[in-house]
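ok so I'm stuck.
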Amino acid sequence: MLKKHIKLLWNILNSLKNKVCKWEMKKNKNEDFILKRIIDIAVSGIGLVILFPIFVIIGVLIKLDSMGSLFFIQKRAGKDGKIFRAYKLRTMVDNAVEMGLGYEIAKDDTRITRIGKHLRWGIDELPQLINVFKGEMSIVGPRPALPHQVEKYSKEERRRLEVKPGITGWALVNGRNILSWPERIKLDIWYIDHRSIWLDLKILLKTIRVVIFTREGVYGKDGVTRDYER
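replied:
not stuck anymore, here's the structure
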């Protein structure tokens, strides 16, 4: 009888322990989420103020180089698949998606403008700080996909939509467009399962090396950035 009661007590303690652990994990995740949002607002706000004069200069060069708007604005899928309008500096001719390779982009693509060739290593993505400030994106997270790409996701791949998309991310600093879509999504899901403020900091430091110094993965292995494919 005593043995039975001890076993019952042990099971109750184990159950309580599991519940406490889950509560602690949820609490830590919530705290990280709040801190991450504070960092996003601070970094994007300060970044936009500092970069504003640079955007003005680049904007003038873009307008002088080709006809069209300063920004390329495109619908993207955010957290939980919610559609938002992502901002980029325009690096291609107007209505480029309706010409040539469509959504795919080649290194020697004739749709890329003269100024655009000098922006496509990463600086063209910086206006997405606006999206970060608005709460549609984060500094770090999976890169935002196009709606038609999300429609083709499997159930597992849709996990990519569990967090806000980012300007940089784990897949970007580990191969970028050199990786196949399945490889990128696998890395993004790994990030979602292991995300933390410290991992974000590691990604930001790696971004400096990958984007500014090595500039690797701007295009695919064959020189073409491919549309979604399994």
